[in-house]
């Protein structure tokens, strides 16, 4: 009876909540459609309704925002038009449709610039930066967020400052600069708590939890994620609640509590499916796929990660594609499909290099240093412009006095420049030819490496088959009568279907030695005393052959290969923590 009463009470609460939501939406819609009310009241009601609809469906919110945009165009009010366009962009961001969000935010940017709305400019600069961040373009993201921060500080808009600091924390988090990231997040949190931005608090607590997770502080990370979930429920923010559950799932997976991890990840995926958050759904599927890999449930991991990859490709979320490709590589490897596993590993490496190359890291560091410098020099900006003007006037006067001399020098310079341009063109053409030659050579080397790897695997498989054949022969020896004759017939048929050429091993070693000749020379030059077997072992490791394959090729036990690797590591003067494979690839 008590259980029935509790269920009835819960049902009544749900009905009352839905009625309350329906009543609020109806009230706002009536005010928006009431032509007797002032246009400003109608617009504010319409924008509030679009924002309210976002809690339950980004699609419905966007549909009404487009209707609101038509209203603003009919009233020829550019301020209202800018707000409606911005909100449409926000709905696309909510669903991970970042290219579309990018287009709407730039439309808003042009309008607020035309209106000279400094606050609106600061807000949209931050939004554009957030979109570039989600698309994996960190240098562009940093540039726009810093512009937003500078302008917000100038006009003393603390909510915008807080958001910019949070976004800077996101960028440094992805670049693995965790101390700087945590500092930005804590500054952002302090401002939000000071001015009472309750709806933004779940996000910052979530971000702080991510930093603690990266620093392997499970207790602090879980506390931050739980606080994010609690605050999300208070403000009825389903998106943030789902994000908190997702991160709790990842955190428990890190501590090998996989049942608890799946419980939270399933909650997160259910909410993201409910609110049609496709980008968030892709992340949730990726995290659950990684958890399945850790549990050796490779088929489930493959299914989740393939769905996540499909969504992330549509929305062009490069960073998520990288994570999903790593998961798929591990899943296919676990399923024994090494070819597909290698394909996804190569794709993962390519995406990783795109996101975290040194050039982009330097660009971001340089942008932030420029921002700090400009901030320090702000007080002297007036004197600087005066000096610049005086220098310009002096330069023009000097230019007028030396006009004739300038033109003579100009003609001579043009002649020299033309000649140098010709030389540069010839030099550039030669460089192009050399580059093409090098590319062809590298392609040939890569093809030979793949051919060697395939040959090694074939040799290994054939030798394994030979071992199994010997075992079957031993079984036949002890058999008698018709059973023995039948086993011989089966064996004869199998041997006919199996082609084994003994010279494959010799051809393989010959090709290895030919391809690795320059590699052998560098090894012997840098490290004395290496035997021929040890040098060949280096080539096998560089070809990414595993211990079992190497043991089969050399007709020894895997334990002997491990001992050989340890001896080789000592001769190469490597410590136990050094990665032998990575070291050999650098030679």
Strand content: under 5%
SSE pattern, N- to C-terminal: HHHHHHHHHHHHHHHHHHHHHHHHHHH
What is the number of helices?
A: 27
Low-confidence regions: 1-20, 376-385, 499-503
- How many extended strands? 0
Radius of gyration: 33 Å
Shape: extended
* Range of helix content: over 70%
> What does the main sheet amount to?
none
**Which structural category fits the helices and strands?**
mainly alpha
Distance between the termini: 76 Å
What is the typical, i.e. mean, pLDDT?
A: 80
Sequence-ordered SSE layout with sheet pairings:
Layout: H1 2-33, H2 39-53, H3 58-75, H4 78-94, H5 98-115, H6 118-134, H7 138-155, H8 158-174, H9 178-195, H10 201-214, H11 218-234, H12 238-254, H13 258-274, H14 278-294, H15 298-314, H16 318-334, H17 338-355, H18 358-376, H19 381-401, H20 403-477, H21 481-497, H22 503-515, H23 517-526, H24 532-542, H25 547-554, H26 558-571, H27 580-585
Give the tags.
single chain; 587 residues; mainly alpha; 27 helices; 85% helix; extended
3D architecture notes:
- There is one protein chain.
- The chain has 587 residues and is mainly α.
- The chain has a domain of 106 residues.
- The protein is 85% helix and 0% strand.
- It is built from 27 helices and no strands.
- Helix 9 packs antiparallel against helix 10 and helix 13 packs antiparallel against helix 14.
- The radius of gyration is 33 Å and the shape is extended.
- The relative contact order is 0.03.
Summarize the structure.
The chain crosses the membrane at residues 406-425. Keywords: Membrane, Signal, TPR repeat, Transmembrane, Transmembrane helix. By secondary structure, this protein is an all-alpha fold.
């Amino acid at each position: 009876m008590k259980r029935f009463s509790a269920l009835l009470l819960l049902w009544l609460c749900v009905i009352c909540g839905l009625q309350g939501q329906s009543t609020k939406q109806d009230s706002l819609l009536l005010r928006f459609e009431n032509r007797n009310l002032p246009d400003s009241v109608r617009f504010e009601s319409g924008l509030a309704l679009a924002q309210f609809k976002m809690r339950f469906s980004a699609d419905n919110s966007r549909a009404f925002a487009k209707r609101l945009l038509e209203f603003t165009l009919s009233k020829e009010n550019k301020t209202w038009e800018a707000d409606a366009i911005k909100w449409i962009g926000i709905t696309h961001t909510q669903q991970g449709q970042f290219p579309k969000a990018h287009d709407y935010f730039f439309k808003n940017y042009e309008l607020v610039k035309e209106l000279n709305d400094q606050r609106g400019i600061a807000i949209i600069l931050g939004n554009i930066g957030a979109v570039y961040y989600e698309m994996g373009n960190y240098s562009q993201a940093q540039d726009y967020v810093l512009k937003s921060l500078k302008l917000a500080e100038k006009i003393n808009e603390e909510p915008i400052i807080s958001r910019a600091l949070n976004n800077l924390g996101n960028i440094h988090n992805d670049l693995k600069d965790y101390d700087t990231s945590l500092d930005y997040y804590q500054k952002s949190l302090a401002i939000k708590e000071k001015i009472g931005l309750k709806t933004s608090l779940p996000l910052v607590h979530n971000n702080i939890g991510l930093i603690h997770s990266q620093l392997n502080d499970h207790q602090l990370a879980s506390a931050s994620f739980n606080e994010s979930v609690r605050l999300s429920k208070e403000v009825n923010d389903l998106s943030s609640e789902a994000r908190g559950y997702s991160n709790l799932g990842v955190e428990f997976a890190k501590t090998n509590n996989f049942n608890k991890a799946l419980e939270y990840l399933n909650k997160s995926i259910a909410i993201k499916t409910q609110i049609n958050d496709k980008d968030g759904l892709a992340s949730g599927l990726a995290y659950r796929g990684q958890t399945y890999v850790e549990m050796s449930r490779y088929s489930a991991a493959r299914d989740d990660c393939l769905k996540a990859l499909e969504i992330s490709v549509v929305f062009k979320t490069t960073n998520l594609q990288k994570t999903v490709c790593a998961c798929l590589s591990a899943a296919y490897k676990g399923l024994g499909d090494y070819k597909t596993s290698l394909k996804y590993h190569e794709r993962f490496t390519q995406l990783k290099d795109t996101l975290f190359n040194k050039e982009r890291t330097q660009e971001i560091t340089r942008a932030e240093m420029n921002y700090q410098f400009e901030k320090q020099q702000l007080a002297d900006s007036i004197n600087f412009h005066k000096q610049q003007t005086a220098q310009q006037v002096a330069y023009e006067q000097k230019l007028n006095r030396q006009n004739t001399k300038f033109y003579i020098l100009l003609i001579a310079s043009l002649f020299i420049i033309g000649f140098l341009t010709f030389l540069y063109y010839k030099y550039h053409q030669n460089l192009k030819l050399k580059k093409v030659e090098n590319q062809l050579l590298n392609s040939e080397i890569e093809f030979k490496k793949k051919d060697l790897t395939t040959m090694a695997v074939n040799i290994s498989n054939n030798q394994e088959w030979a071992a199994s054949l010997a075992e079957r022969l031993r079984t036949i020896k002890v058999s008698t009568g018709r059973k023995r004759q039948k086993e011989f017939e089966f064996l004869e048929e199998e041997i006919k279907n199996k082609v084994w050429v003994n010279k494959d091993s010799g051809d393989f070693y010959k090709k290895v030695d030919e391809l690795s000749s320059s590699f052998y020379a560098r090894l012997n030059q840098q490290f004395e005393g290496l035997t021929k077997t040890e040098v060949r072992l280096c080539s096998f490791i560089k070809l990414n052959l595993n211990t079992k394959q190497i043991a089969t090729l050399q007709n020894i036990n895997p334990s002997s290969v491990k001992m050989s690797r340890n001896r080789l590591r000592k001769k190469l003067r490597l410590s136990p923590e050094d990665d032998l494979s990575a070291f050999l690839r650098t030679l």
